[in-house]
UniProtKB/TrEMBL annotation:
Protein's name in the database: Aryldialkylphosphatase
Binding site for a divalent metal cation 2: E164, H196, H225
Family: Belongs to the metallo-dependent hydrolases superfamily. Phosphotriesterase family.
Binding residues annotated for a divalent metal cation 1, in chain numbering: H21, H23, E164, D295
Cofactor note text: Binds 2 divalent metal cations per subunit.
Cofactor(s) needed: a divalent metal cation
UniProt cross-references to InterPro entries, sorted A to Z: Metal_Hydrolase, Phosphotriesterase
SUPFAM superfamilies: Metallo-dependent hydrolases (SSF51556)
GO molecular function: hydrolase activity; zinc ion binding
Species classification: Bacteria, Bacillati, Bacillota, Bacilli, Bacillales
Length: 348
């Protein structure tokens, strides 16, 4: 009953309050489409500042600098705020091609005395390395195995969860290979498997089918980002397959209108809508299959840049859940027991 963290194995019943989907350091700049208009281009080159925070609250990708978190001092301060609010375990799903740094994570984990669990595998097609076409399912599976068994990026720091494995609106062949490889590794290791699905797509079923056909256990799969364009029927159908669904955009309340629709292609739900959807799912009997996180991947999500930080779900969302009639016991299940069960590798 254990979980591998960046500093070694811990018991899964000792994880405390868990954020199951976050990014301490991340660099998504290469994934942000550039604009041809001079004024937009000029704005995209600015640094995140009070003068553009209003714009970024509507379109978070208007300034490219918002898509990178790389300041160690800032991240330390933000993680400390998470700890002080009562958090104990932080799952970091930044993968190799979007800025993963296992040694930095291990250093912060030791210094702050919090658990950090790191992810492995490949993110969406757009971030894949140039030789991805040459990789086979078996070679990708072996890479993921190695990150779990021996260590990541030339270190002996081991991954403790698979993902977030990236899929797009239409699943690319290389994404499918990665899904199949992840399923093989999931079956062998018993680890939880996070899958990033496109913010507006409903291809979670297809993802689950591919994974389970190749041996993955449904109750170790988590479909991410279902809380951007909330569709209750879709969620119910996914949950009936036995997988977890993750409300992981707490703190993101954008509205990019048609002038700004690139990464954000449609409306973006607000926290109160997320909480109300969770309450409904609990009433429908799905309490044990819901995960909750902030998926911090923008500077403006952090206190240091005007946001609510990693502690947002603790500081602001727990009271909102209470206001909406979710009980203390149910909140504990959502934030402690569910992620512990998802992360548990089923081994001693
Ligand atoms: Zn993420």
């Amino acid at each position: 009953m254990s979980v591998m963290t960046v500093t070694g194995k811990v018991r899964s019943d000792s994880l405390g309050l868990v954020l199951p989907h976050e990014h301490a350091f991340i660099d998504l700049r290469s994934l942000v489409p550039s604009s041809s208009e001079i004024s937009r281009k000029k704005m995209s080159q600015e640094q995140v500042a009070l003068t553009n925070i209003g714009k970024l609250m509507r379109n978070p990708y208007a300034v490219l600098d918002n898509a990178v978190i790389d300041d160690e001092t800032v991240v330390r301060d933000e993680l400390l705020k998470f700890k002080k609010a009562g958090g104990k375990t932080f799952v970091d799903l930044t993968l190799r091609d979007i800025g993963r740094d296992p040694a930095l994570l291990a250093g912060l984990s030791r210094e702050l005395d919090i658990n950090i669990v790191a992810g492995c595998g490949y993110y969406i097609n757009k971030s894949h390395p140039s030789d991805m076409d040459n990789k086979t399912v078996d070679s990708i599976a072996e890479e993921i195995f190695n990150e779990i068994r021996y260590g990541m990026d030339g270190t002996d720091i081991k991954a403790g969860v698979i993902g977030e494995i990236g899929t797009s609106e239409i699943i690319y062949p290389n994404e499918k290979k990665t899904l199949i490889a992840s399923a093989i590794v999931q079956k062998e290791t018993g680890l939880g498997l996070h899958v990033h699905t496109d913010l507006y797509a409903t291809n979670g079923y297809e993802v689950v089918n591919i994974l389970t056909e190749h041996g993955a256990t449904a109750d170790k799969i988590c479909i991410n980002h279902v809380d951007v364009d909330i569709k209750m029927d879709y969620l119910k159908d996914l949950l009936n397959l036995g997988v977890y669904v993750e409300f992981d955009n707490f703190g993101k309340e954008f509205y990019a209108d048609k002038r700004d629709r690139s990464v954000l292609r449609g409306p973006f739900a607000r926290d109160i809508e997320r909480v109300r959807a969770i309450k409904k799912l609990i009433d429908w009997g799905f309490l044990s299959k819901i995960l909750i996180s902030n998926d911090v991947c923008l500077k403006t999500c952090l206190h240091n840049y005007g946001g609510w930080g990693y502690d947002h779900v603790i500081t602001n969302i727990i009271p909102m859940m209470e206001d909406e009639g979710i009980t203390t016991e149910q909140i504990k299940t959502l934030m402690c027991s569910n992620p512990a069960e998802f992360l548990d590798d089923g081994k001693d």
